[in-house]
Design a protein that fits this description.
Number of strands: 10
Shape: globular
Distance between the termini: 9 Å
Radius of gyration: 18 Å
Oligomer: single chain
Number of helices: 8
Order of helices and strands: EHEHEHEHEEEHEHEHEH
Strand content: 15-25%
């Protein structure tokens, strides 16, 4: 499978003040997919501008033609499968079938309490995710769905005409634990990881590679348990959260070295953040564009 380089464009800019231009430029640079975060607010950006993922992707679909679009990642924290399915089918239609849904169990950040609830425990997040993904799969593939579960219900929910992409738009399931990896194996067209968060502060790049190899091995085991070939799934690494931090974007050679090491682990797609000045995602824009234009050819 050929190497894919993608980008994550955080929705912190007004569309008329550079927000829209970034998506067009991402297509011009040849990125495979341009993703955005699906949060109500996020970390250091909480007290500044932050826009919704689905409207942002809809606008991006209108100003691009070829690049794929997606979320990294949507979660049950403030989403319901019935309403999410309707939005995704609409977005897939508007984009002409260019949407990938990155989806994960969610965390304990601002999204977890914005609707007034107490943060869910890790077990409840896993329980909800285990119900959310199969129900969303049905909603995106069946004309009418009824379901009564522990957390989510649907009563004759209609989703006609369904997705442009058949049988539905692809799921990129973010997971590192056993239950999430089982969902990735069964429902995913791709698997997403950011590495081992415990290594971010004091770990080394070498330790991170070992951890990622172990995660990929557990994914292979989850696939084998249901008779699925793990090679059917794309393996996606969202960068910026390993001990390497921003160093891979310091030069073309640094990125090719970083990407090459992770390609050897079986990763087929690497996602780099669009540069954001004065943030953890700060990077030289000229170097960033050089990487976008030249690295894929070097990596094959």
């Amino acid at each position: 499978m050929s190497f894919r380089l993608s980008t994550a464009i955080l929705p912190y800019r007004r569309w008329t003040e550079g927000g829209g231009a970034a998506w067009q430029r991402a297509e011009e640079l040849g990125f495979h997919t341009a993703y955005t975060y699906d949060h109500l607010s996020w970390r250091s950006f909480r007290d500044g501008p932050w826009f919704g993922a689905v409207p942002t992707l809809t606008a991006a679909a209108a100003v691009t033609r070829r690049i794929r679009l997606g979320t990294l990642v949507t979660s049950p924290n403030f989403r319901h499968p019935v309403t999410l399915a309707k939005e995704l089918i609409s977005l897939d239609d508007i984009s002409g079938g260019r949407v990938t849904l990155g989806i994960g169990a969610g965390g304990t950040g601002f999204d977890a309490t914005a609707l007034g609830q107490e943060p869910w425990s890790p077990r409840e997040r896993a329980d909800r995710f285990a119900e959310f993904v199969p129900l969303l799969d049905r909603l995106l593939t069946e004309d009418s769905v009824s379901h009564e579960g522990d957390f989510y219900s649907a009563v004759e929910a209609r989703n006609i005409p369904g997705c442009v992409q058949r049988p539905r738009l692809p799921f990129a399931v973010a997971a590192t634990g056993p239950r999430g990896l089982k969902l990735a194996a069964r429902y995913g067209q791709a698997w997403v990881t950011t590495g081992d968060p415990k290594l971010y502060e004091e770990g080394t790049p070498e330790q991170s590679v070992v951890a990622l190899r172990e995660q990929a091995g557990k994914l292979a085991d989850a696939c084998a348990a249901i008779g699925r070939d793990v090679s059917e799934l794309d393996k996606v690494l969202l960068t910026g959260f390993t001990p390497d931090r921003g160093r891979p974007l310091e030069s073309l050679d640094a990125f090719v070295d970083f990407a090459g090491r992770h390609r050897e682990l079986g990763f087929t797609e690497i996602v780099v953040h669009w540069p954001i000045p004065d943030s953890d995602f700060a990077a030289d824009e000229k170097v960033f564009e050089q990487i976008a234009m030249e690295a894929p050819a070097q990596l094959g």
